[in-house]
Amino acid sequence: MTAGQVPFGARLAAAVAERGPLCAGVDPHPGLLREWGLSADAAGLERFALTATEALAGEVSVLKPQSAFFEAYGSAGIAVLERVIALARDAGTLVLLDVKRGDIGSTMAAYAAAYLADGAPLAADAITVSPYLGFDSLLPTMELARAQGSGIFVLARTSNPESGQGQHARVEDGRTLAQSIVDAAALRNATAERGGDVGVVAGATIGAGELDLRALNGPVLAPGFGAQGATVADLRRVFGEELPGVLPASSRDILRHGPGQAALRSAVRAVQDSLRG
C-alpha cells in the first residue's frame, strides 16, 4: 500500500458510520427491466442501471452491481458497468463488484488486475471471490487488494439453499468448510487495526450459530435480506444484536420500487430505518 493510502477496512468503517450498513444491489435482471417498462437489451440495461445508481449511490455506504447481468449484453453491457462504477464513486459510495471469481495462478492474478488494479476500467473498491479452488488460490487477489487499499469478500456460507451440501462439509480437523474459510480470512485480518480487508459472505438466511465470526476482524456481506425472506430479526438472530461489521444486502426488494428515483430513495430510507430500529 502506498504511503497515505487508507485501507479498505477503515474506508468501509467511515462510510458505514456516515450512511449506515446497507449494501444496495444494482441487479438488472430482465424481469426487473420489464417491470420498469424497459426493453431487455443494452438500451434498457443502460436506462435501468444508471437510474438506479443515480438514485441509490448517494444514500448508501456500499453499492453492489451484479456483474453477470451486465456481461450478458457483451461489450455494451460492460461499458454500462464502467459508468455505474464511476457514478457511484462520484457520489462517494464504495463499490462492491459482485463477480465471484475464483481461479489459480496467473488467471486469478489477471482477474485481480481487471477489478482492483488502479486505473483499470472496472476497478472497484472490493469484489466477491470464490475460494473453492483452495483459499490460497486467492493470494494474488488478496495481495493486490491490500496493496491498493481495496477489499475482497470470500464466499463462506451463502444464502442459496443448495449451498449447504458443500459448505457444511467437514475438513480434516472437524470444522465445516465454511468455518475454515472464515478462519483463513481471520488470519489475513489479524494485524488490521480498524477491520481487515478480507470479508466473508454469510447469508442472512443461515442458521444461528453456524459460523463463529468473533475472530474475523473484517466485514460480513449478508445476502438474503429482503426479497429472499430474511428480516432484521433474522439478521440479529444470525449475527447478534449489535450486528458488528455486517452489511445487509438488498437489491430486488428495493429495485422493484422503480423506475421513479424518489420512490427508490424512499425504499432505501425505509430499509435503513428498519436496520436502526
UniProtKB/TrEMBL annotation:
InterPro entries for this protein: Aldolase_TIM, OMPdecase_AS, OMPdecase_type-2, OMPdeCOase_dom, RibuloseP-bd_barrel
Keyword Transcription regulation tagged: no
Enzyme Commission number(s): 4.1.1.23
Catalytic residues identified in the record: 100
Keywords: Decarboxylase, Lyase, Pyrimidine biosynthesis
Domain of life, source organism: Bacteria
Known catalytic reactions: orotidine 5'-phosphate + H(+) = UMP + CO2
GO BP annotations, alphabetical order: 'de novo' pyrimidine nucleobase biosynthetic process; 'de novo' UMP biosynthetic process
Protein family (similarity comment): Belongs to the OMP decarboxylase family. Type 2 subfamily.
Name of protein: Orotidine 5'-phosphate decarboxylase
Gene: pyrF
